[in-house]
Write a structure and sequence with these properties.
By secondary structure, the protein is an all-alpha fold. It has one domain. Helix 1 packs antiparallel against helix 2 and helix 1 packs antiparallel against helix 4. It starts with a helix and ends with a helix. About 20% of the residues are buried.
Length: about 180
């Protein structure tokens, strides 16, 4: 019974972690686009977006990440030995890269805190979709749990990525930037 409570809490914290991973890059986009505003408006907006970014990062995203990982590793005991579960090994690889993505957001936040804006809003829009790709891949792996399904899921993931990239290009074209 404890397993199900841990699993439920793990899912809850995954949701809150991803909420931060989805929203933080959006705040980066807004921060970057505020640079095109008149000076007074730019200063007010960027200051407010920076406050929002820091609160989201330190108040929701990082704590949710840590609790998700602790609960996730407590659940892995049920799946030992890992070699009997190739889907779980693949999921752990995706989680490793998700953590690198998470850390990259922290690096971008630090650059904004230092007054740098090294990325365009379009680059940040593309980067914003990376968490969606991880979410789709991880959920399909957890639900399907089979190598053949993983293969179909990965093919679907590539198609999904291509559709996302096409949508971003179309949005950019329609927006005229």
């Amino acid at each position: 019974m404890v397993y199900f409570y841990l699993k439920a809490l793990h899912i809850i914290f995954v949701v809150t972690w991803f909420a931060g991973l989805f929203y933080l890059p959006r705040l980066f986009i807004y921060y970057t686009e505020a640079a095109d505003k008149p000076v007074a408006e730019k200063q007010i907006l960027q200051k407010q977006f920076l406050i929002m970014q820091k609160r989201l990062w330190y108040g929701i995203t990082w704590p949710s990440c840590i609790v998700t990982l602790i609960l996730g590793f407590s659940l892995i005991i049920q799946w030992l030995p890992l070699t009997d579960h190739p889907w779980l090994i693949t999921k752990l690889v995706f989680i490793f890269f998700l953590l690198l993505y998470h850390l990259s957001l922290g690096k971008i936040l630090q650059q904004f805190k230092n007054g740098l804006t090294p990325y365009t809003s379009t680059q940040l829009r593309v980067w914003n979709e990376v968490s969606t790709i991880f979410l789709v891949a991880i959920v399909f792996l957890v639900i399907l749990k089979s190598f053949l399904s993983m293969t179909y899921g990965l093919i679907g993931l590539v198609i999904f990525i291509l559709i996302l990239m096409g949508a971003i290009k179309l949005y950019k074209r329609l927006r005229g930037t």
